[in-house]
Amino acid sequence: MNAPVLELRNVAKTYRVKQGLFGKAKPLNAVNDVSLTLNKGEVLGLVGESGCGKSTLAKILLGLEAPTAGQVLVDGEEIGGQGRLALARRIQPIFQDPYSSLNPRKTIADIVSLPLRVHGVGDATSRAKSVRETLELVGLPARVLNTYPSQMSGGQRQRVAIARALIMHPEIVICDEPTSALDVSVQSQILNLLNDLRKEFGLTYLFISHDLAVVEHLATRVAVMYLGRIVEEANVADLFDAPRHPYSRALLNSVLTPDPSQGVPDTQLGAAYPNPINPPSGCHFHPRCPFAQSHCKANAPRPVPREGGHVECHLHDPDSPMYRPDFTV
Amino acid sequence: MNDTATPLLGVRGLTLDIPMSSGVLHAVRGIDFDLHRGETLCIVGESGSGKSLTSLAIMGLLDKNIRRSAERMEFDGIDLLSASRRQMRSLRGDRIAMIFQEPMTSLNPAYTIGDQLMEALRLHRNVSREKARARAVELLEKVGITAAASRLGQYPHQLSGGLRQRVVIAMALMCEPELIIADEPTTALDVTIQAQILSLLVELTREMGVAMILITHDLGVVARVADKVGVMYAGELVETGPAADVFGKPLHPYTRGLLRCIPQPGKTQRGAELGTIPGIVPSLIGDVQGCAFRTRCPHAIDACRDAIPERGTPPHEFLCVHPDGARAAEGEPA
Amino acid sequence: MALQRIADPLLEEITGPNPRQILRKRVTGHAGLLFGVGVVLVLLIIAILAPVLAPHDPYAQNLANRMVKPVFMGGTWEHPLGTDHLGRDYLSRLIYGARVSLLIGTVAALISGVIGTAMGVAAGYFGGKVDAVVTFLINVRLAMPVVLVALAVVAILGGSLQVVIGVLGLLLWDRFAVVMRASTLQVRRREYVAAAQAIGASTPRVILSEIMPNIANNLIVIVTLEMAHAILLEAALSFLGLGVQPPTPSWGLMVSEGKNMMLFEPWLVLIPGIVLFILVLAINLMGDGLRDVTAPENRS
C-alpha cells in the first residue's frame, strides 16, 4: 500500500519572461526545486494561491511541459525514458472546466474512447463495451453515448471527463480543481464519485484545489505551495490541526466555514502576492509573514522533516537562531 | 432588526419572464424582501437560480427582452418600477452602487484609475477636480491601497486582481451610496484575498451605514457576512431569515441539503460520504406549479404539486408544505 | 453496489437537441443562406451541363448575325440573349462563362485555402519561431497589391486559365492564414486539447481531430469569401485583357468586349455584369449565412 508510485526529485521549471518589447528576458521559477512522493492509494492535496506553480507542476506530471531540471519517476522509472504513450497510460488528468475539457464537436462515445483509439487498444466492439462499462462506472447511462457535450449539464460533463481519464485504468489521476466550476450540490456528487472510485480501484490522486475545505475532506496528505516551492507537506490531520508554516496557517484561517457566529477572519497577510519574476530575498514569504525577522530576509529556510513531510521555516529549524520548538500556530 | 421602520429597499412579488423560442422562461417568480439601512442581505443560490437577474432588475439593467413586473419595488420612497431611465441613471452609481465579479469588466482598461474614480464622482456631483482627486485618494487609502496618490496614474492592468477589486470598491463608494449590490465580488479571487476583500466590505458598510445585497453561491461567505439570508432556488426565495437562524436551524429541505453537500471542517468526518441533492434544477419554461424542489426533495408528497404555503414566523420564513420543514422525517429533533 | 449510489436519477433528462439538429434548424430558418446556396447550386449545375444546355456553339461566329438584340428587346428566340459583335450566341457564351468563373473561384480558393490554413494553424499551434515566420510572411503578402502583382505576373507569363488560377491561388491565402491562426490560438487553449495531449495523442492527431473540427466553421466562411474575391479578380483581369484570353468565354471578357458598344447596346455589358453580380452576391450570402448558422452553440 505504501510503495511510491510517483516521485519528484528536485524538479524545477523556469520560464524566460520578456518584459516589454526590448526588455531582457528574465527567469521565472514557476516550480523551484520541488521534491514530492505520492504513495499508492493516497490523495495528495496541493494547495496554494494562483500563480504559485501548482498548475505548472500538474503539466509536468502529465508530460505537457518538460521540467528544466530534476527527475520525475513513475514506479521508480524516469518519465523521460518511458515515452509519452507509456506515461499517458499511467497518469491521466481531470481538468477544472468541464465546458472546455470536452471537444464540442465529438460525441460522448468519441470522447471517452479516444484514449483506447490513440493507444490502439482492442477492436471496435471491445472498445464500445469498454466505453459503456466506464460510463456506467461514473454513473452515466449508455443512452448518452451519441449525445454531444452541449446537451449535458456541468456535472454530467465532469463525469464524462472522469470516464475518459479512467478508461485506460491509470494508476495516478491528476485532478486540477475538478469541482471549482460546479455548483455546490453537483460538487458533492463528483467528490463522492472520486472518493468511491479511488477506493474501488486503488487509485492515487494528486488533488489540486484552492478550496481547503474540500482538500481537508478528500486528501490524506497535503502539500502547501508558495512561489514555486512546497513550503509545508504533512499528513492531512497534522496539517489542518497543527499547521507549522505561517503561510499554511494563513491559508487555513482564510477558509470560510458556514458558521454565522464567526466574522470574516483576518489572514494577517498584509502585502499582496509577490511578483514571481522578482521573488523576495531569503524566505520568499517574509514580506507577508507576521513572524518575520531580519534573519528571514537574508537566509532561505531549508526543509526540515515533519510527520509525513517537511516544513520550510526558520521557526522550525533546530539550526536556526529563530528556532522555537514549541511553535505551532 | 427593526421591521416596523420603512425599509430602504422594499420588493414585493418581483417577477422576471424571459420569452424564448420554446416558451416563456420564468427566471424569477415572485420574490419579496426588505432591506433596511446598514443591513447586509446575502442571496445565495446555484447557477440558474435567478439571483444575478434579481440584482440587475433592482438596478434597472436588465436586457430589453426580459419582462419585469412586481407589486412593489421601492428604494427610499422612489418607485423603481415607474422610474424613468434618467432617474435610474442618476440613482445608479450615486445612491445605489454595484460591484461585479470580475473587476476588469467594471474598469475601463483605457483610462487610469484616478480618471475613473473621479469620473464616478463628477458624473453625479458638481465638484472640482481637486476635490474629486482628494476624495479618490482618501477612498483608495480607505480600501487599503498603499501609496494611493501614486496609484491614481496607473492603469487597471498594472494591478493585481485583489487590488483591482479594491479599486472597484473604492469606485462604488465615491458617491457615498446608500445601497451596494455586490454580485459574487470575491469569486474570481484567491481565498486569502477573498477574506481581505470581504472584511473590507463588512467594515466599510458598517462604518458608513451602507446597506448591501451580496449575491453569492458560497455558503461560507454568506455565513460570515450576512445579517439576513435569502436562499434562492429556481427563481424563488425558498427560505429567508437572520443568518444565525438559517444556518443554525435550516427549515427548507433545499437549504438543509446544501449545507450537507459541503465539507465542513470540524463537523464532517474526513473522507466520509458527503450529502448530495440528486437530480437537476427543473426547467422553468412554461407553467411552473407547486414546489420547484419537489423533484429532488427526499420528503416530497402529492401536496407538493399544489400551491406552497409560506411557513415559519417572521423574520425566519420558508416555502414548504411541511410545516416543520420535515425535520422529523430526517430523524432530527424538531 | 457503489454504482447505484453514484448514479444520478434525473439523468434521463438529456436536455436539448444535439448540435446537428440545431444546425439543421438554423439552416432551414436562414433565408439568405438558402437563397445563396440555391443560386450557387443552380449556376453550378448549369456550368456542369453547359454542353447540354447551351443552344449554340459558344465559339461559332456568324458575322451576318452580329449584335442581334435579346428576345425581350425585340430579338428572336433563336438567340434568347442575342449575339455579340462576332455574331456568337450570347446565352451560350454566358453558360460556358459560368464554367470559367466557378472553376477559377473554386480552384483558386482551394489552393489559397490549403496554403493559408497550413500556415495559420501551424503558427497558432506551435507559436514561437513558427509564428514569427508566418506572421512575417503574412505581413509581406499584405504589403503586396494583389491586382498589380497579378497584372505583372500575367503580363510576363501570358494570360491563360491556368496562369490566372495559379496567380490567384498563390496570392489570396492571407485571410486564411490570419483567421486560421487566430482561431487556432483560441482553440488550442481549451482543455480538451491538453486532455488529448495527456492521453498521448500525436501532434497531427491533435491538430486534425481536436483543433480542425472546431475551426472548420471559420474556414468555410473564408472559403466562400475568397471564392467571390477570386471570381471578381478574374473578371477584372479578363476585362483588362490580362486574364482568360479570347475566344474563351469569360464574363469579365464579355464585359470587356461589349464595352465599346456600351452606349448603343448596353445589354452587352449589362447581362454578363448582372450575372456576375448575382453569383458574387449569392456566394457572399452563403458565406454570411454559414457564419450565422455555424456560430458556436456549445456554451449557450
Low-confidence region ranges of chain A: none
Largest sheet of chain C: none
CATH topology heading of the largest domain in chain A: Rossmann fold
Number of domains of chain C: 1
The appropriate CATH architecture of the largest domain in chain A is 3-Layer(aba) Sandwich
Mean of the pLDDT scores of chain C?
Answer: 84
CATH homologous superfamily name of chain C?
MetI-like
- Looking at the structure, what is the overall shape of chain C? elongated
Helix content of chain C: 55-70%
| Distance linking N and C termini of chain A | 32 Å
Notable features of this structure?
heterotrimer, A: 329 residues, alpha/beta, Rossmann fold, 2 domains, 8-stranded mixed β-sheet, 4-stranded antiparallel β-sheet, 10 helices, 22% strand, C: 300 residues, mainly alpha, MetI-like fold, 13 helices, 0% strand
Write the layout of secondary structure elements.
The complex is a heterotrimer of chains A (329), B (334) and C (300).
Chain A: E1 4-17, E2 26-39, E3 43-47, H1 54-61, E4 69-74, E5 77-78, H2 79-90, E6 91-94, H3 108-118, H4 124-137, H5 154-166, E7 172-176, H6 184-201, E8 204-208, H7 212-218, E9 221-226, E10 229-235, H8 236-241, H9 246-253, H10 294-298, E11 304-306, E12 309-311
Parallel strand pairs in A: 3-8, 3-9, 6-7, 7-8
Antiparallel strand pairs in A: 1-2, 1-4, 4-5, 9-10, 10-12, 11-12
Helix pairs in contact in A: 3-4, 3-5, 4-5, 5-6
Chain B: E1 9-20, E2 23-35, E3 40-45, H1 51-59, E4 67-69, E5 72-75, E6 78-79, H2 85-91, E7 96-99, H3 103-106, H4 113-124, H5 129-142, H6 148-151, H7 161-173, E8 179-183, H8 191-208, E9 211-216, H9 219-225, E10 228-233, E11 236-242, H10 243-248, H11 253-261, E12 310-313, E13 316-319
Parallel strand pairs in B: 3-9, 3-10, 7-8, 8-9
Antiparallel strand pairs in B: 1-2, 1-4, 1-5, 5-6, 10-11, 11-13, 12-13
Helix pairs in contact in B: 4-5, 4-7, 5-7, 7-8
Chain C: H1 2-6, H2 19-28, H3 31-48, H4 50-53, H5 90-126, H6 128-142, H7 146-157, H8 161-171, H9 174-188, H10 191-199, H11 203-239, H12 251-258, H13 267-293
